[in-house]
Design brief:
The chain contains ten helices and 16 strands. A seven-stranded mixed β-sheet has the order 10-9-8-13-14-16-15, sandwiched between helices. The protein has a four-stranded antiparallel β-sheet with strand order 2-3-1-4, with helices on one face. A three-stranded mixed β-sheet has the order 5-6-7. 31% of the residues lie in helices and 31% in strands.
Amino acid sequence: MPWIKLILETTDDHASELEDLLIKLGAAAVTLTDNADQPLFEPPLGTTPLWSQTRIEGLFDTTVDMDVVSNILQHYFKKELPGQGLNYKIEALEDQEWEKVWMKDFKPIRFGKRLWICPSWSENPENNAFNISLDPGLAFGTGSHPTTAMCLEWLDSEPLDGKYVIDYGCGSGVLGIAAGILGSRHVLAIDNDPQALLATRDNCIKNNLEDSIDAYSPEQLQKLINSKSSTPPLNDNNYYADVLIANILAGPLQNLANTLKNLVKPSGKIVLSGILSHQKEDVITAYTPSCKLVAFQEKEEWCLLELERIS
């Protein structure tokens, strides 16, 4: 079926309202993107910031009267943004098999020497390698971001056989699944987003790891710790993992420092990512003196820290 795409430019103050307006006018999909090369690295918790100059694209089917859409948009801009003026264009999109067009953009990706992430519709590139079946989803990790890529490369290089692993802030579960495929004895995947926990459980089933990976919220994890009935055994109400990996952001990693340290046994490893290079020292400070820095990696403007718990 052919489609019509409407493209307009606005500011962050009105982007969400215009998004809602386009949906009310019949848009099948609306996307917001940066219109001024303005990166948003680390938004405050509980906020959803937008770019100061935002590009909005609305996708309409051909049954929608675009003259009506244009007239309503002109009225909105005249009333709400009298000094800005309506800057938009309308394009006709040729009929395509959009699912196939979308799918061809996602290819298997290798991380390190042994680990591959493969979309479910593709063949495994190396049958003797460690292959994760993972489809692109919502705002969850598939390995394409530098922070996730560094974590996967680290896991690929680490001997994990028989070890207990925690994936804190699991998102799609990709890091926990990688640990499971690479030989870990058991993985706890932790996230405070219910949708992330659902995605993780679904991806565990796709990779035949539902028996060796459990997904919990932080509150459920605390109940597990308090019950003293989990595996591995608990000591002084702490869950002594051999490895904890957290790909979040610098601010939450600092705030969670005591929580994460107490989940790892002495001599265990804590791997932190989602940190901009200039934030590295602040994060290290939050984990000392009970942890020491063993190594760090940098990719683009991001870095990964490998710490060892020493007390």
